[in-house]
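REQUEST ID: PR-0412
SUBMITTED BY: lab tech R.K.
PRIORITY: routine
TASK: structure prediction, single protein chain
INPUT:
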Amino acid sequence: MTSGGPDLFVICKHCGSEVSPYITECPYCGSRLRKRAPKLDRDGRLAEKERRRARRRAPAPSLGPLRRGEMPGIRPDGRPYATGALVGASLVLFVLLRADVVNLVDVAIVGRPTGAWWHVLTAPFAYENSGYAFVALFAIALFGWLVERRHGPLAVALLFLAGGAGGMAVVAATETFPTALGGNGAALALLVAWALPDLRAARRGREIDGDLLGAAVFGVVLLLLPIAVDWADPLAGATGLVAGVALGYPLARLAAAR
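STATUS: complete
OUTPUT:
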């Protein structure tokens, strides 16, 4: 705009929209902007008094400069750091196991871990079978990301520990000679915790955005993994289901109260 030229827009005080300085009502919200149309000079520009009055109006609120990939007025969700760290740790350990840098019996549940109960923490990150690793880690990545978007990274870490390490602890404490590893319990805990809010909403007749049918398919596959993979313990998966309900229900109530 050249010096002395007309103002391109003014700001509606009610909805904050940028509108023409030549109108009396906001076309977006219908609010009255002025009692009468502004006076124009012989060149079709706002008269000097009207220009001074327009300049005194408050500027539009600003979100600041946009980052790459953002849309105006919308900020992207935070990055899933907790989910990425959990999946990344599992992938690193998988590579180390395949390269024989780490021995499987040093991280998995093989027999009663007497004096080495820390195996319940490492076993959910370990995979001996690439197919098992793909299914479990894909589910952890997907539902961990969805849970982290909704509840934050702490919820993801707690659900992974409760379903993964908790499942391994139950297996080690109850079975005669347990052999277990992998994150089937952790994946089921994250899946259930994510699905619970939508299940509650669907039961009350509300419209939902989540794909509960797809989640159910994932859940069935994870529950049936022990049939195809010896290291995937069904008791660990069942513990993951219980952990998902136990932690997911209060998380769903907390999210609904916001």
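NOTES: Residues 1-6, 69-76 have pLDDT under 50 and may be disordered.
REVIEWED BY: pending
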